[in-house]
Amino acid sequence: MAVNLADFIGCWRVEREIAHGDGSRGRFTGTAEWVSGEEGADYVERGVLEVGGGAFQAERSYRWGPGLDVYFEDGRFFHAVPPEGGEAAHWCDPDQYDVTYDFTRWPEWTARWQVRGPRKDYVMTSRYAPLAG
Q: What is the CATH number of the domain that holds 21?
């Protein structure tokens, strides 16, 4: 299935597992919302991050363009989401971020990030499902 930006608009449940190379684990549970705007959509996720024996409120934001290009809050390009799923990458010196999007069970879908480098080493799998509403 090929997706477009309109397919994401709305509220989603997100559950994320983080497996660090040293064997430690983390978990994020919350919501993600895409809000349509003039030139794309604003993405905001909010929830609880459990890591290192503690639980913290967490939030992050991105800007999605009409062609599924994703930008950081400051406007820098992050990566392009493949409309049919598949791989994308981002180099954040000195670490490499590789993602695989899987839309085969749409509207439930996953994004799996493999992050490697001298500063970071983890796999982060996010599972999304639409919230009724």
A: 2.40.128.20
